[in-house]
Write a structure and sequence with these properties.
single chain, Rossmann fold, five-stranded parallel sheet, 22% helix, binds magnesium ion, binds zinc ion, hydrolase, Fcp1, HAD_sf, RNA polymerase II CTD heptapeptide repeat phosphatase activity, FCP1_dom
């Protein structure tokens, strides 16, 4: 059976390790200010790790988060799995604001509308966000296969609303990521992605990201990805003057030769 992080943390009060009231304090962690073990309302209990991405207003102390990491490690070793952390933009997909769509890309807006009901589509118009998103070729196959070997997280510097919207496209049934979607607000250090907010053992983490800079403390875990640029705004942003894949009506991995 798949266990969610939320269940592991025992906020429902079912976790064995959290039952013994006599051992509080130290309080292992809090949900809406109430201790997960003894239920007391505690105003200030020193530094805590905020894990809003798992459950809003969830905070864990160092001891409890370390315990969670050990439990997760045991579980993953039993399942013969490692942890895979996936960046979104330029790693799994490319997005553009609708306002930045060039004339030569306008056909994509019509295309996105016409394939709206196709479950295998890779182009999405996110009306509420005023964005157009193109998944990298073979993303669905990749996720399906990676899921057999890894416990997977999304980890992006983008805002939470965007991260959740994209998670829905990548994983509509919530079988891959569930609540494991980490975004900018969860980071404990500005402009840096840290593994401190991941309740998994650092030595079994593999990271796929196109940006090395944000992983200063975890370079050994990082596999640097070649950037996926599909839209013209993305190419411009990175200083490429050539036509984008979208403008050429092609995609990554397709031959440049005419007629292919
Ligand atoms: Mg990126
Ligand atoms: Zn307590």
């Amino acid at each position: 059976m798949m266990e969610t992080n939320q269940e592991n943390i025992g906020i429902t009060g079912t976790s064995k390790n959290l039952e013994d009231k006599d051992s509080c304090p130290p309080h292992p962690g809090f949900y809406k200010g109430l201790c997960l073990r003894c239920g007391q309302l505690v105003e200030d209990d020193g530094p805590m790790l905020s894990l809003d991405y798992i459950t809003k207003d969830l905070k864990l102390g160092t001891r409890e988060s370390d315990r969670q990491r050990k439990e997760d490690l045991k579980k993953l070793l039993r399942e013969k799995k490692l942890i895979l952390i996936l960046d979104l933009d330029h790693t799994l997909l490319n997005s553009t604001r609708l306002a930045d769509v060039s004339m030569e890309e306008e056909y994509l807006l019509r295309q996105a509308d016409s394939i709206k009901d196709d479950p295998k589509r890779s182009l999405f118009k996110l009306d509420a966000m005023h964005m157009l998103t193109k998944l990298r070729p073979f993303v669905h196959t990749f996720l399906k296969e990676a899921n057999m070997m890894y416990e997977m997280y999304i980890y992006t510097m983008a805002e939470r609303s965007y991260a959740l919207e994209i998670a829905k496209l990548l994983d509509p049934e919530k079988v891959y990521f569930n609540c494991k979607v980490i975004s900018q607000a969860d980071c404990t250090q500005r402009h840096q992605k840290g593994l401190d907010v991941v309740l998994g053992a650092e030595n079994i983490v593999v990271i796929l990201d196109d940006t090395e800079f944000v992983w200063q403390k975890h370079k050994e875990n990082l596999i640097l990805m070649e950037r996926y640029h599909y839209f013209s705004s993305s190419c411009r942003q990175f200083g490429f003057s050539a036509k984008s894949l979208s403008e050429l009506m092609k995609d990554e991995g397709e031959s440049n030769e005419p007629g292919h």
